[in-house]
């Protein structure tokens, strides 16, 4: 396995909460997949989970080394949870094509959140 990039992000949970409250579905549907919306909404502290996924998406983009460019879409970077609770990145659409063209085979992800902040680190790899 070869590491192609590393990205990390930290976000204030209150910032994400404010965006959700101000823009509701227009925000969540642009940023999150339907799976992520269902998952986060089902949690007691939904804002922490939304913020963790926001940080994860930012970390993945930083690991790509591109930032948010044309062809990369927020809701095409999906964070799912394995039964163990471990987060996993699933790409779709143009974002998946972008990753394949750059030889990205795997994305390792860690997310953490506390009372005020959520953070994530992503490592993009090729085999």
Automatic annotation (TrEMBL):
Chief site of localization: cytoplasm
Record's catalysed reaction(s): apo-[ACP] + CoA = holo-[ACP] + adenosine 3',5'-bisphosphate + H(+)
Record GO biological process: fatty acid biosynthetic process
GO molecular function, one term: magnesium ion binding
Residues that span the membrane, as ranges: none
Root EC class: transferase
Enzyme Commission number(s) of this protein: 2.7.8.7
Xref: InterPro entries: 4-PPantetheinyl_Trfase_dom, 4-PPantetheinyl_Trfase_dom_sf, ACPS, Ppantetheine-prot_Trfase_dom
Family: Belongs to the P-Pant transferase superfamily. AcpS family.
Domain 4'-phosphopantetheinyl transferase: from-to ranges: 5-120
Binding-site residues, Mg(2+): 9, 58
Function, as annotated: Transfers the 4'-phosphopantetheine moiety from coenzyme A to the 'Ser-36' of acyl-carrier-protein.
GO cellular component: cytoplasm
Subcellular compartments: Cytoplasm
Keyword terms, alphabetized: Cytoplasm, Fatty acid biosynthesis, Fatty acid metabolism, Lipid biosynthesis, Lipid metabolism, Magnesium, Metal-binding, Transferase
Pfam families, sorted: ACPS
Keyword set includes Magnesium: yes
Organism (species): Rubinisphaera italica
Entry cofactors: Mg(2+)
Signal peptide segment: none
Name under which the protein is recorded: Holo-[acyl-carrier-protein] synthase
